[in-house]
């Protein structure tokens, strides 16, 4: 298999093991432990060694890893992405009886998904559960690894206009069928799957996930499809690049993945929280630096925010911009927005393009069509807590926020290469706003 095929297969394996944001953080913790990173806890005193490698999690769904230099800290080089994807979340006491014959589950929408993509396919539940044992509440990852739920669509005979544009209502159209009346309750099934007694189950954060596995396809296997490519594709690729990075004198290499991007990032563990700032401040302090040292380091830092981008759609090419038209397998995409939905400016975009060139990777440009609003992402939200020059990038994909998304096989390997380059050389702003490109 070609190198990019192996990379794509490894990505799909990671995604299949990561049906929720909690699994993303846990699986990344395992990868980091195997690579020699030690876990820190926010409630402990941090004593860090120069040259050391550490990681810390917050809320069970966000994670920051740091690889420290041996020298005095002169700046941070940061990759940021997100661990969450749009999904349907099961409500507490969410079972609804239908005519005394069926039981369906009441769900809420998490993030903005393409609702129709969740219909007529096997679904299941994943996330975390809380159990009460001997006066303690403990959290545990949960994944029912079997086909458990399905949201059936309505027959065309009962809705003749279904192909003329259907409007979906989460309360009415998106409630998954769970059981026949009188069968096991939801808490019984959860307890059974987790190997617990039902009375031990004290709480849960459970999301529906698509059971369909990832696929590599096309005449010459150029495409890959999977649930949750946004943003696990960038999160995984930037982690791989981070682990391949060789470091650079004086630079703290920082890998972050944040939860709750799909709902605005304004949570304790989101990109809008103090998580990144707290970690960076504590790193400088633990290495003997002052507040002044921290602020000086921030001023000489660089952040790449990596969140998937829209590729030109084969059937809807007119929805893309006239002049910036990224295609799958055309390389990472630099995102620009005049109204600052993206943080990229002329300088940070040029730094990223230079990194791509040095890594031997092509790159592309994205602007929203000027008469369309488009989405937003992490960069400008984290910049409000840690004011570091940043560039918003992503891999081109199709069907963003569908339960089954599509991207290019080659692009993942390219993004790994770019991040490996970023984490091996200094990207350092100077006092007059210029950048030294020493790579
Ligand atoms: Co995203």
Automatic annotation (TrEMBL):
Q: Which domain of life is it from?
A: Bacteria
Task: Look at the named UniProt entry and state the broad enzyme category this protein falls under.
Answer: hydrolase
UniProt-listed InterPro entries: Peptidase_M18, Peptidase_M18_dom2
Gene Ontology molecular function: aminopeptidase activity; metallopeptidase activity; zinc ion binding
CC annotations in GO:
cytoplasm
Question: Which CDD domains does this one have?
Answer: M18_DAP
Its Enzyme Commission number(s) read 3.4.11.-
Q: Which GO terms describe its biological process?
A: proteolysis
**Cofactor(s) named in the record:** Zn(2+)
Please provide the record's keywords in A-Z order: Aminopeptidase, Hydrolase, Metal-binding, Metalloprotease, Protease, Zinc
- List, alphabetically, the PANTHER family matched: ASPARTYL AMINOPEPTIDASE
* The family this protein is said to belong to: Belongs to the peptidase M18 family.
Name under which the protein is recorded? M18 family aminopeptidase
Source organism per entry reads: Candidatus Egerieimonas intestinavium
């Amino acid at each position: 298999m070609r190198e990019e095929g192996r990379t794509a297969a490894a990505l799909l394996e990671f995604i299949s093991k990561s049906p929720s944001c909690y699994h993303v953080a846990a699986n990344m913790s395992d990868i980091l432990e195997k690579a020699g990173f030690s876990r820190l806890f926010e409630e402990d005193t941090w004593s860090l060694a120069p040259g050391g490698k550490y990681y810390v999690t917050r809320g069970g769904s966000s994670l920051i890893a740091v690889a420290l230099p041996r020298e005095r800290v002169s700046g941070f080089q940061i990759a940021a992405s997100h661990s969450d994807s749009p999904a349907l979340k099961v409500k507490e006491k969410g079972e609804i009886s239908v005519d005394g014959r069926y039981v369906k589950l009441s769900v809420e929408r998490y993030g903005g998904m393409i609702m129709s993509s969740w219909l007529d396919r096997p679904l299941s539940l994943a996330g975390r559960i809380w159990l009460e044992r001997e006066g303690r509440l403990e959290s545990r990852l949960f994944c029912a690894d079997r086909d458990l739920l399905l949201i059936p669509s309505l027959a065309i005979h009962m809705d003749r206009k279904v192909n003329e544009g259907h409007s979906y209502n989460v309360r009415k159209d998106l409630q998954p069928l769970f059981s026949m009346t009188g069968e096991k309750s939801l808490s019984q099934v959860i307890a059974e799957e987790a190997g617990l007694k039902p009375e031990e189950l004290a709480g849960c954060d459970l999301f529906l996930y698509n059971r369909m596995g990832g696929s590599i396809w096309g005449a010459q296997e150029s495409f890959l499809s999977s649930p949750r490519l946004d943003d696990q594709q960038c999160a995984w690729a930037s982690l791989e690049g981070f682990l391949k990075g060789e470091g650079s004198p004086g630079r703290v290499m920082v890998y972050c993945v944040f939860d709750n991007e799909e709902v605005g990032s304004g949570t304790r563990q989101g990109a809008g929280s103090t998580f990144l700032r707290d970690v960076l401040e504590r790193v400088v302090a633990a290495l003997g630096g002052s507040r002044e040292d921290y602020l000086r380091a921030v001023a000489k830092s660089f952040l790449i925010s990596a969140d998937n981008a829209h590729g030109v759609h084969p059937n809807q090419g007119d929805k893309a911009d006239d002049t910036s038209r990224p295609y799958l397998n055309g390389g990472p995409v630099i995102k620009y927005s005049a109204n600052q939905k993206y943080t990229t400016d002329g300088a940070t975009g040029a730094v990223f393009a230079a990194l791509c060139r040095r890594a031997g990777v092509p790159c592309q440009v994205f602007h929203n069509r000027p008469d369309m609003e488009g989405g937003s992402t992490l960069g400008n939200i984290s910049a409000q807590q840690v004011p570091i020059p940043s560039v918003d990038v992503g891999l081109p994909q199709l069907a963003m926020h569908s339960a089954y998304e599509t991207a290019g096989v080659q692009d993942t390997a390219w993004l790994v290469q770019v991040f490996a380059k970023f984490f091996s050389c200094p990207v350092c702003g100077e006092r007059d706003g210029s950048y030294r490109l020493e790579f």
